[in-house]
Amino acid sequence: MPLDDAQTRLADVREKIARAARIAGREPDDVTLIAISKTYDADAIRPLIAAGQRVFGENRVQEAQAKWPELRAETSGLELHLVGQLQSNKAEEAVALFDAIHSVDRPSLVEALAKAMEKLGKRPLCFVQVNIGDEAQKGGCRVAELPALLAAARSADLPVAGLMCVPPFDAEAAPFFALLAKHARESGLSELSMGMSGDYETAVTIGATHVRVGTALFGERA
Ligand SMILES: *Cc1c(COP(=O)(O)O)cnc(C)c1O
Hints:
Blueprint: H1 3-23, E1 32-36, H2 42-50, E2 55-58, H3 61-74, E3 79-82, H4 91-97, E4 100-104, H5 107-120, E5 125-131, E6 141-142, H6 146-155, E7 160-164, H7 174-186, E8 191-193, H8 200-205, E9 210-213, H9 215-218
Parallel strand pairs: 1-2, 1-9, 2-3, 3-4, 4-5, 5-6, 5-7, 7-8
Family: Belongs to the pyridoxal phosphate-binding protein YggS/PROSC family.
Pfam families: Ala_racemase_N
Keywords: Pyridoxal phosphate
């Protein structure tokens, strides 16, 4: 992607976030845009960094390990978020590499992350991923299991900042965003990771503090 295209796309997404924030009486700066660069190689990511984007997201530990050390060596101040499912045996690698983890979804992972953070002396911000549509075969903890998982995370002293969701693919997202926001409020959590290329403006009007945008910035994935 040429630098011009990266600048145009980034400006467009930022403008839409700002507009949605203003509609909801929020400050545009209260929304963090995470550019989801999964499947794109370092050469495809560089124009977006050159255009000024600093916060990126990946869904696989190994893929991120292959690209980001090099990109981070080139540009300081980059922030990297993990948005994909995490195996407990990769918890230590994830803690070492990422600044935030959006996919905490089960007690065994809470334990593994707490142990890794203790060992490495590094505490990436955590989001508990909620299977907000209670779908079979979907990542995230069941809504009914959320209180117990949050209690486990608190007793393990995990730095949980908020909740994350990927709503059902074939349904209107807004009601699910509203439900996630309600659970966050009731749990005393301030951060909400919700909204992707197709629905990030809606998510911002409903309170998203972190939107995860891939294709609107990078184009369709192969
Ligand atoms: C791929 C991905 C995104 C970005 O999706 P787009 O539709 O490309 O914006 C956001 N969140 C998660 C968890 C993803 O896996």
